[in-house]
Structure formats: structure tokens, C-alpha cells
Design brief:
The chain is an alpha/beta fold and 348 residues long. It folds into 2 domains: 130 residues, translation initiation factor eif-2b, domain 1 (Four Helix Bundle (Hemerythrin (Met), subunit A), Up-down Bundle), CATH 1.20.120.420; 210 residues, Translation initiation factor eif-2b, domain 2 (Rossmann fold). Strands 6-5-4-7-10-13-14 form a 7-stranded mixed sheet. The protein has a 4-stranded mixed sheet with strand order 11-8-9-12. A 3-stranded antiparallel sheet has the order 1-2-3, with helices on one face. Strand 1 and strand 2 form a beta hairpin. It starts with 5 loop residues before the first strand and ends with a helix. The relative contact order is 0.12.
Length: 348
């Protein structure tokens, strides 16, 4: 039950092109930071943790061929960092991993440029390995929330394809499956790019986990009919108070879940928490191309002159979240107290 979306070998970052799933499994090769930027921007690679990992390797590729003095090297490093961070502004993992690489090099007393380059690559690989370990801890912690036969709703894709290979929200599902707690997953299709219908269903199908895809606007009727026992989603950025940015449509589900008395869980690593901002009001929301809405995979579905609003994310207030599932365990309200476990480690 591992679906790694990226791998690095011989100075090439290979990315599983998620735009082409489930019809084709195609790997895209990136040898420079510009190609990595484009792959992040056009959603060849997606999901906050996976984007962060790709950004780390992209930063290394951006300075791999540099020749010059140490001072000029760090100018180049900063330039490349800002360039890559701008690819997807909402998710915080991209910023965190890039900043981590820079900090490790800046604190080093190494004067030799080749050694600094190796340090960058070593740190990118270390972050990659750590993400897998963290996701498996999230899975183990969250699996205790579910009983055999539970019917679980999820939105977008927070599986292996969105991380180093195991997943956050789906990692919890995988861990529950491994413990014999067979669940049935309802996957919102997730308009406009259908990450639930294409990617989540693809992962679950390959894992042998029963999955039913539903239109996004069918979720409320299932909750009313008592066919959903719990909801679990991932996250792209979580503010210090617990307000959570995730794929557009997540807020709808959280409000509906509270109305129907259904637990609503967010599974995310500590690297997705941004303790530098107090609330979700400070989270930048990325607006994406109108073509994602007007053209359904290259087939026009709207009049050509229609206006389009296409925010990629919304923010769910912390008051609607039953608990966070993290590598530090299950964190429940009041979040001002429970999130201190992560703040001590990740706050800057």
C-alpha cells in the first residue's frame, strides 16, 4: 500500500505525472529547477508533503551546476528558493522544506561549494525518508479512531500520491486495513480536477479497499441517511489556532458533519502546521486557471464567455474539527493546549 509519486536518482528527479492517472502511469524527468517549478505549478506532482519534497530536490537542482564563490552561491540559493516557493502559495510544506535546506547549509561552516551542494542533496533525501516515517506514525495513531466496517468519507487525495508514498488521511485507512479493520471508503470526486475520482479511487482500488466514488454534492444526502460514520481529510496549511486550509469543498463537509453529528478528522504531519500565523484568515488562497473549470480534461463544458471563479482551497474553522491526527498522536480541542506538542518542535 505504497504509491511513491517521486524518486531521485543520478541527478534526475522523476515524478509520476498525476494528470494522466488513472489511464496511464507516466514518469516525468526533471533535471533543473525550472522543470520542477512547472511540474509543481501544473500539478504533475501535488499534495502538500509531496510538493515540499519535490521543492527540496528542485532547490538542489537549481544550484547543482553553480560555479563561483560562497557569497554568490548563497545569493543563487536564495533566488532559487523564492522562485520555487512561488509555484504553490497555499501549502506550507514547500516553504518549510526549502527553508530547512537553506538553514542546514547556512549553519554549516563548510566553505567548499561542492560540499555545500552535497549537504543540500543529503537534506532533501533526509526529508524524503522522514516523511515516510511520519506518515506511518500518523497512520498508526489514526487507525484507532475506526472500527471494523466503518464507512469513511474523504475528499481530494491525501494518500501516497500526495506524500512520499504512504499518505496522511489514506495512510490512516491503510493502517486500519492492515490491522484487519476493514473499512468502506466514500471518495468525493473533487471538482474540478477530480483528484478523488482519479487518484484516491486508483490508490484504494490497487490496495483492495472497497471504495465508492460520489459527486461532491451527494455527501450531504449520505450523511442524512446515516451512511457515513466519519470523515477524514488531509491539509495544505494549518494555522496556530487549528484553522485548516485544504482542497476547496472541505469546509462544506466539515459544516455538514457538525450538523449531522459526524466526527471530522484532519490528518497531517507537523510540517503542515504554520505557527507563524494566528488564524486561517492569514492563509493565502491560490486561484487557479479558469480552464480547469471551463474545460473538463480538454473538452469544453461551459459557454466560452462565462466568468469563472476557481479557488483551489478553502479554510475550515478549527471549531468544526473533531481532532487532528499527527505523528505526535491524536490532538483534540482545546487546540491552544494540544497543539503545543507540535509547536515546540516546528515553530520558528
Amino acid at each position: 500500500m505504497a504509491f511513491p509519486p517521486l524518486r531521485f536518482k543520478d541527478s534526475i528527479l522523476q515524478l509520476l505525472d498525476q494528470r494522466k492517472l488513472p489511464q496511464k502511469e507516466v514518469w516525468l524527468s526533471c533535471s533543473n529547477s525550472r522543470q520542477v517549478y512547472q511540474a509543481i505549478r501544473n500539478m504533475t506532482v501535488r499534495g502538500a508533503p509531496a510538493i515540499g519534497l519535490a521543492g527540496g530536490y528542485g532547490l538542489y537542482l537549481g544550484i547543482a551546476n553553480f560555479k563561483g564563490e560562497r557569497e554568490a552561491f548563497f545569493r543563487k540559493l536564495k533566488e532559487q528558493a523564492e522562485y520555487l516557493k512561488s509555484a504553490r502559495p497555499t501549502g506550507v510544506n514547500l516553504r518549510n522544506i526549502i527553508d530547512r535546506l537553506i538553514e542546514r547549509m547556512a549553519e554549516s561552516r563548510l566553505e567548499n561549494i561542492p560540499q555545500l551542494k552535497r549537504r543540500a542533496l543529503e537534506e532533501a533525501k533526509r526529508a524524503h525518508k522522514e516523511d515516510d516515517q511520519i506518515c506511518r506514525k500518523i497512520g498508526q495513531a489514526g487507525s484507532s479512531l475506526f472500527q471494523k466496517g466503518d464507512r469513511v468519507l474523504t475528499h481530494c487525495n491525501a494518500g501516497g500520491l500526495a506524500t512520499s508514498g504512504y499518505g496522511t488521511a489514506l495512510g490512516v485507512i491503510y493502517a486500519a486495513q492492515e490491522k484487519g479493520r476493514k473499512l468502506h471508503v466514500f471518495a468525493d470526486e473533487t471538482r474540478p480536477l477530480l483528484q478523488g475520482a482519479r487518484l484516491t479511487a486508483w490508490e484504494l482500488n490497487k490496495s483492495g479497499i472497497p471504495c465508492t466514488v460520489l459527486c461532491d454534492n451527494a455527501a450531504a444526502s449520505l450523511m442524512k441517511a446515516r451512511k457515513i460514520d466519519a470523515i477524514i481529510v488531509g491539509a495544505d496549511r494549518i494555522a496556530a489556532n487549528g484553522d485548516t486550509a485544504n482542497k476547496i469543498g472541505t469546509y462544506n463537509l466539515a459544516a455538514l458533519a457538525q450538523w449531522h453529528g459526524i466526527p471530522f478528522y484532519v490528518a497531517a504531519p507537523g510540517t503542515t502546521f504554520d505557527f507563524s500565523i494566528r488564524s486561517g484568515d492569514q492563509i493565502p488562497i491560490e486561484n487557479r486557471s479558469r480552464r480547469e473549470v471551463t474545460e473538463n480534461f480538454k473538452k469544453r463544458i461551459t459557454p466560452p464567455e462565462v466568468n469563472v471563479l476557481n479557488p483551489a482551497f478553502d479554510v475550515t474553522p478549527h471549531s468544526l474539527i473533531t481532532a487532528f491526527v499527527t505523528e505526535a498522536g491524536i490532538l483534540k480541542p482545546p487546540y491552544g493546549k494540544s497543539l503545543l506538542k507540535l509547536k515546540k518542535k516546528y515553530a520558528k
